[in-house]
Amino acid sequence: MYEIKTQAFFSAAHHLLNYEGECENQHGHNWMVEAYVRGDLLDKSNILIDYKVLKRELKAVLDLLDHKDINELEDFQGESPSSEMIASFIYKKLKEKVVQLNKISVWETQTSCASYFEEE
Question: Is 109 left (phi over 0), alpha (psi -120 to 50) or beta?
Answer without folding.
Answer: beta
